[in-house]
TrEMBL record:
<dbReference type="GO" id="GO:0005759">
    <property type="term" value="C:mitochondrial matrix"/>
</dbReference>
<keyword id="KW-0143">Chaperone</keyword>
<protein>
    <recommendedName>
        <fullName>Complex 1 LYR protein domain-containing protein</fullName>
    </recommendedName>
</protein>
<dbReference type="InterPro" id="IPR008011">
    <property type="entry name" value="Complex1_LYR_dom"/>
</dbReference>
<feature type="domain" description="Complex 1 LYR protein">
    <location>
        <begin position="10"/>
        <end position="69"/>
    </location>
</feature>
<dbReference type="InterPro" id="IPR045295">
    <property type="entry name" value="Complex1_LYR_SDHAF1_LYRM8"/>
</dbReference>
<dbReference type="Pfam" id="PF05347">
    <property type="entry name" value="Complex1_LYR"/>
</dbReference>
<comment type="similarity">
    <text>Belongs to the complex I LYR family. SDHAF1 subfamily.</text>
</comment>
<dbReference type="GO" id="GO:0034553">
    <property type="term" value="P:mitochondrial respiratory chain complex II assembly"/>
</dbReference>
<keyword id="KW-0496">Mitochondrion</keyword>
Length: 105
């Protein structure tokens, strides 16, 4: 496996940090946070080309600011739009508990 670039490491670290954030939120809201994170990362990744470093760096900075806001202990829930729910349904996965995605029957 080839070594990751600096920007790849930044994106991966941001995603890991976001996933760790989920565990610090109330159990009843963790599904919404996890869906929000997965949807945001996947859809944003589809909007930029792999070689467009300026756009990727911009998204990392934007994601970092958003994550800083959501890490505040006063934030207990996040909004999940119908589009996000439809995306989850279309992907055919159900996130029953944090970190355990299972295929739907």
């Amino acid at each position: 496996m080839s070594k990751r670039s600096g920007i790849q490491e930044e994106v991966l670290n941001l995603y890991r940090r976001a996933l760790r954030l989920v565990t610090k939120k109330p159990v009843e809201n963790q599904h919404r946070f996890l869906l929000f994170i997965r949807y945001t990362f996947r859809t944003q990744a589809q909007t930029v080309r792999k070689r467009d470093m300026a756009a990727i760096e911009h998204l990392v900075r934007k994601g970092t600011r958003t994550l800083d806001m959501y890490e505040d202990p006063a934030v207990k829930d996040c909004h999940v739009s119908d589009t996000m729910r439809q995306w989850e349904k279309d992907k055919g996965i159900s996130i029953r508990r944090y970190g355990q995605a299972t295929p739907r029957s």
